[in-house]
Amino acid sequence: MTRSARNTVTAYYAAFNAENPTGMLACVTDGIEHRVNEGGIRLGREKFAEFCTHMGVSYREQLKDIEIFVNETGTRAAAEFVVHGAYLKTDPGLPEARGQTYILPAGSFFDLQDGKISRITTFYNLNDWIAQVSV
Fold first, then answer.
1. Which helix (H) or strand (E) holds 96?
2. Which of 122, 47, 134, 39 is nearest to 96 (CA)?
3. pTM of the predicted model as reported, rounded to 2 decimal places
């Protein structure tokens, strides 16, 4: 079961780096719970798809140095990575986008059910990101 969880999270990040939201959606349950740093909770595949679309327009990101950790039963996982990104379109309440680049350490926690991701919680230092795109 551990290998399946690792494979699912690996596939999720491969789809992310390929800018393939359809591939990301294939890795999550219909009832996905998506908890975003400094934000609310999105429930369900439709809300997650909307988030992926928004991110694809406002940001271009690649995750590097990904390390994935999985518990013995394969029901929980975590990943640490470095986000290399460009800020393309202004997000409401955030600094104006002008194509600024950033490099930001981040991490995510996952719950998995039946080989799919049922919860994603992502953390990063928002103040660090704001400082990088505000120069």
1. none
2. 134
3. 0.94
